[in-house]
Every structure is written in structure tokens, then in C-alpha cells.
Write a structure and sequence with these properties.
Elements lengths: L15 H14 L1 H5 L3 H11 L3 H28 L5 H15 L2 H4 L4 H11 L2 H7 L7 H11 L1 H28 L5 H12 L1 H19 L2
Helix pairs in contact: 1-10, 1-12, 3-4, 3-11, 4-5, 4-8, 4-12, 5-8, 7-10, 8-9, 9-12, 10-11, 10-12
């Protein structure tokens, strides 16, 4: 007998747990296309592990921000089935980079300020990718989406982060202990496999928040 899957709620009513479950399902259904999303954050993770704290603070808002924004743009295109123009792709990448730039400094004292910032404005990338609105309206639109159900946005980002970080730690331990991989290699492989969930889940969060705006 086929395993019964609970009926998913519509995006406007989707819970944090269902968002994570739908992210995993989408990843499994589009594994190879999504796996590529993990290369950039995996490279960033390995570089950060092998440089000083000062270099990390220099690279976080610059090179790593650019790479992570590019991965998020591609992830948004995959999840939302969008094919924006080159101009909008570049704009989405730049805006995503700008929004991400202060996050490494916001999380220095505690992780929460960074999550609060991303929950408020982090959806600017899928906004530019999926919506035919003027670019000057993208940030206000992202702010509108973030406020539609701010606790859902914040909880979703927090949960996605916890799932990825904890799963990545376990996978690194397994690869080092049983696979004999070097620490940097194990970290790279684990990040490649698991970090795509962050981009997939955040793109699905855009769908949730847009649906909540429509029913307000």
C-alpha cells in the first residue's frame, strides 16, 4: 500500500513545519538542479573555516554575499518557475547582495537581529524574479510581504536554519568518522547537499507571504 501523505494546506495557511516539508519534497523532486545551489555556500563555508576572523568579516558582506545572492536568485527561479530578463536578474542579484550585506554584522552579538532583518526584507530577490513590478518598488513590496505574517516568516527562516545547521553538523561527523574525509572536504560536501534547502525554503516562503497578502 502506498504511504499516505497528509494533505498540504494552501500557501496562505501553510505552517512552518509544512513549509520545511514542502522544501524537502521540492528538493527531492528536483535534486540535481537544486544540488547546484549548494556549491557557492559550500565554497564560502570552507573558505571561512580556513581564514582569520578579520578576513571573515571582510569577505562576508562582499564575496560571500555576492555568491549567496546569486544562488538565491537561481533558487527562486527554480521554485517559482520564473524566467526574468537579464536586467531583472542582475537587479535581483544586486538587491539580494545589498540586503544580505549587513547580516554578518547583525549576527555578531546574537543571531536574532540577522533573522529579523532577513524576515523583513529577504524576500526582495523572489519579488524581482517573479513579479512584473518596477524595480524601485521591489524593496517596499518585500517589506509588505514580510509584514503579512512576520512571525511565520521569522519562524520559517529560523527553522530552516536550524534544520540545515544541525543536519550539516551530523553529516560532517559521519563523513569524517566513517568516510575518512578531511574536515574541509566533509564540510564542503555536507554544505553542498544541505544548504540548497535554505534557498528553496525561502523561495517557498515568498509564495506563503504573497498568498497571505492577497487574503488580507
Amino acid at each position: 500500500m502506498a504511504e499516505l501523505r497528509p494533505v498540504a494546506l494552501p500557501p496562505a495557511e501553510r505552517t512552518v513545519g509544512q513549509l520545511v516539508a514542502e522544501s524537502i519534497r521540492f528538493y527531492g523532486d528536483h535534486f540535481w538542479a537544486c544540488l547546484v545551489l549548494g556549491v557557492a555556500p559550500a565554497a564560502v563555508a570552507v573558505v571561512f573555516k580556513n581564514v582569520s576572523h578579520g578576513i571573515q568579516l571582510l569577505l562576508a558582506p562582499t564575496l560571500s554575499g555576492a555568491l549567496i545572492s546569486a544562488a538565491f536568485v537561481r533558487g527562486s527561479m527554480l521554485v517559482l518557475g520564473a524566467s526574468p530578463s537579464r536586467r531583472r536578474l542582475i537587479a535581483a542579484w544586486l538587491l539580494g547582495w545589498l540586503v544580505f550585506a549587513p547580516v554578518p554584522f547583525l549576527v555578531l552579538a546574537f543571531v536574532l537581529p540577522g533573522l529579523l532583518w532577513l524576515a523583513a526584507l529577504g524576500l526582495v530577490v523572489p519579488v524581482v524574479v517573479a513579479e512584473a513590478i518596477p524595480l524601485r518598488a521591489a524593496v517596499p513590496r518585500a517589506w509588505q510581504l514580510g509584514r503579512a505574517d512576520y512571525l511565520h516568516a521569522l519562524g520559517s527562516l529560523f527553522t530552516l536554519g536550524i534544520v540545515v545547521v544541525l543536519s550539516q553538523s551530523v553529516l560532517v561527523f559521519i563523513l569524517r568518522g566513517f568516510g575518512g574525509a578531511a574536515e574541509s572536504a566533509a564540510l564542503f560536501l555536507a554544505s553542498v547537499v544541505l544548504s540548497p534547502l535554505l534557498f528553496i525554503g525561502t523561495a517557498l516562503l515568498y509564495v506563503d507571504q504573497a498568498a497571505r497578502v492577497e487574503v488580507e
